[in-house]
Write a structure and sequence with these properties.
Number of domains: 2
Largest sheet: 4 strands, antiparallel
Pfam families: OEP
Family: Belongs to the outer membrane factor (OMF) (TC 1.B.17) family.
Helix content: 55-70%
Oligomer: single chain
Structural class: alpha+beta
Subcellular location: Cell outer membrane
Radius of gyration: 41 Å
Number of strands: 8
Distance between the termini: 53 Å
Organism: Flavobacterium saccharophilum
CATH class of the largest domain: Mainly Alpha
Number of helices: 8
GO molecular function, one term: efflux transmembrane transporter activity
CATH architecture of the largest domain: Up-down Bundle
CATH topology of the largest domain: Outer membrane efflux proteins (OEP)
Amino acid sequence: MKRVILIFLCSIGLTANAQVKTLTLKEALTYALQNKADAKKSKLQVENSEYQIQEIRSRALPQISGNASLTYNPILQTNVIDGGSFGQPGTTIQATFGQKWTSGAGISLTQALFDQSVFTGLRAAKSTREFYQINDQLTEEQVIERVANNYYGVYVQRERLILLDSNYVNTTKVRNIVQGQFDNGLAKKIDLDRIIVKMSNIDTERQQIKNQITLQENALKFYMGMPIEAQIEIPKEEFEVVPAALTEVPNVENRTEYLLLKKQEELLVFNKKATEALYYPTLNLVAGYNYIGQGPEMPLFAKPRDGVYWSDYSAIGLNLHVPIFTGFGTRAKVRQADVEIRSLQEDIKDTKLSLDLDYRNAMAQIENNLITINNQRENMRLAKEILSDTKNNYLQGLASLTDLLDAENESLEAQNNFTRAVLNYKIAEITLIKSKGELKTLIK
């Protein structure tokens, strides 16, 4: 009885795991943005940028620290002094200063009053936050693009399998007809063998396509951050071709890739200014309060009757640091920072050209693929008609088996060409949407 229950429970678990989830493109993209590691990490970078900003701001706030010490001097230093200071001219006195034990505790404060690098860092804090926010947006767009392309790839592979399954069924029907003809002496054995070989080839191709589907689905699930064992289904309407709206050339300066580089340039300018700040003097307010105990015994718990005395002291002052000559080190650092800016500016120019090229190419691919789709749709229709006519002629003895097999191959090829044309269009559509900076519209 226990064994029956166990088998029943296992079957329930397998059934639950085998449930197929119908996944639209929007749902796939939303899932990826919530679960893919890249998207999560970019969010963490945005969060981390706030802590970096706090670190920069802390340099403008008072720095307070405490200190404590306990020192034992087994051998006190002996100093040689002139006896004339003590009414004994012409003599030398050896005097020992200090105590065997010294203990102290205190608190110190440092406040930057003028530090050009701190001021520059505070001005750069806002740009730092914006840089990571733009980078997060770029990461999301990259996730959307990868998932969308693989999503359509899965659908195409499944469509190819459907076509092969249909072709296998039709070829099986022809095999049965030829088998009947052969049994009645109306067909040659070579004709039957050719049909059997073709069925074997179709079956082999089906297995290859099934393997490709598994690989493509696994890639899609990986880019989505979805468990590999999950079962998904893609609605057919997600693959409908709707001619893309032709718009004016988009402003590439609004693209995330361009904005990120411009923000990076802004940060490099601040970095150069922070390096130039090394030329400027710095002024700090310093203050401290300390308490010290000295005596022949450990001062921590001793009292004056033990020869241990405690006293306090404090100091307040200004520290001014004026750089005069650094061996041209600062100048070299400033020039390095300037080279980084100029190098990035070249990247910005190249990226701007590349983004414009992406849009032009995407538009050309959209137009060409629409023409190809229309042509392949017509070819597919004609190939089906030819196959139907050839099959009827074959049954009436007006066409050879070779003609029938060729017609089947042409029909299958026409359908595959149409499917590939639609895939190329959908991928070009994603590229066009990306070139317009509108990938986020796919999840709205």
